[in-house]
C-alpha cells in the first residue's frame, strides 16, 4: 500500500510503505537498488537478508534494518522458516546522493507499560531523508499524544489492533491515516503497537 491509504502518492520523502507477508520458505531473488533509503521492520516471524550488505543477517520481531543504497547495492530478503513472516518496508527518497552503500540495524525492547521508540532518523539509524520513524507501544485504556509540527506531515499505521484517533475515526489493524499540522490523542482498547512516521511536508 502507498503512504496515503493505498493511493500510492509520496508523502514528503516517504515513497513507499508496504505491509507484506512472506509465506514459509519463500524469498525474493537477488535484485539491485540505487539511491534509496530502505527501512525494514519485522512484526512477526523471521526475515533473512542476503546480499553485499550484511550477508546472512536474520531479523526477528521488533527488529529493523536500514539499507542506504547510495551508489547501488544488491540484496535479497525472504523467510527461511516454516511460519509466515510479516514485515513493513518503507522507502525514502534520499536528499544526499552518492557514496558507498551502508547497512544499519536496531532492535526495540518490549515496553509493557507503553512508550515510543525511535526506529530511524538518528545517528544510529541515519536516514538520508528528512524523516523520523517511531514505534509506539500503546496500553489498553491509556491515551498517547502525538503532534505534527508546522512544515511537517505525519502518517500513523495501526499494527495489530483497532486504534481510535481522538474522538473520531478508528483505524483497523493494518490501516493507516495521514495527519496534518496539530495534535491528536490515540486510544487503544487493548495493548497494541503502531508506527508513527514524521516527514518534511
UniProtKB/TrEMBL annotation:
<dbReference type="Pfam" id="PF17954">
    <property type="entry name" value="Pirin_C_2"/>
</dbReference>
<feature type="domain" description="Pirin N-terminal">
    <location>
        <begin position="26"/>
        <end position="91"/>
    </location>
</feature>
<dbReference type="Pfam" id="PF02678">
    <property type="entry name" value="Pirin"/>
</dbReference>
<protein>
    <recommendedName>
        <fullName>Pirin N-terminal domain-containing protein</fullName>
    </recommendedName>
</protein>
<dbReference type="InterPro" id="IPR041602">
    <property type="entry name" value="Quercetinase_C"/>
</dbReference>
<dbReference type="InterPro" id="IPR003829">
    <property type="entry name" value="Pirin_N_dom"/>
</dbReference>
<comment type="similarity">
    <text>Belongs to the pirin family.</text>
</comment>
<dbReference type="InterPro" id="IPR014710">
    <property type="entry name" value="RmlC-like_jellyroll"/>
</dbReference>
<dbReference type="InterPro" id="IPR011051">
    <property type="entry name" value="RmlC_Cupin_sf"/>
</dbReference>
<dbReference type="InterPro" id="IPR012093">
    <property type="entry name" value="Pirin"/>
</dbReference>
<feature type="domain" description="Quercetin 2,3-dioxygenase C-terminal cupin">
    <location>
        <begin position="122"/>
        <end position="199"/>
    </location>
</feature>
Amino acid at each position: 500500500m502507498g503512504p496515503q491509504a493505498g493511493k500510492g502518492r509520496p508523502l514528503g520523502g516517504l515513497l513507499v510503505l508496504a505491509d507484506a507477508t512472506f509465506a514459509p520458505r519463500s524469498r525474493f531473488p537477488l535484485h539491485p537498488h540505487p539511491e534509496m533509503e530502505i527501512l525494514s521492520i519485522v512484526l512477526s516471524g523471521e526475515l533473512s537478508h542476503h546480499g553485499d550488505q550484511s550477508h546472512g543477517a536474520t531479523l526477528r520481531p521488533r527488529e529493523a534494518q536500514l539499507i542506504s543504497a547510495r551508489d547501488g547495492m544488491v540484496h535479497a530478503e525472504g523467510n527461511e522458516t516454516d511460519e509466515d513472516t510479516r514485515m513493513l518496508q518503507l522507502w525514502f527518497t534520499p536528499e544526499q546522493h552518492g557514496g558507498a552503500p551502508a547497512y544499519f540495524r536496531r532492535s526495540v525492547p518490549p515496553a509493557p507499560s507503553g512508550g515510543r521508540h525511535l526506529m530511524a532518523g538518528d545517528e544510529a539509524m541515519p536516514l538520508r531523508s528528512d524523516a523520523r520513524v517511531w514505534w509506539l507501544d500503546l496500553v489498553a485504556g491509556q491515551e498517547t499524544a502525538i503532534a505534527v509540527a508546522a512544515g511537517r506531515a505525519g502518517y500513523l499505521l495501526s499494527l495489530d489492533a483497532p486504534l481510535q484517533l481522538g474522538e473520531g475515526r478508528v483505524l483497523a489493524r493494518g490501516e493507516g491515516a495521514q495527519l496534518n499540522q496539530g495534535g491528536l490523542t490515540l486510544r487503544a482498547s487493548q495493548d497494541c503497537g503502531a508506527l508513527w512516521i514524521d516527514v518534511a511536508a
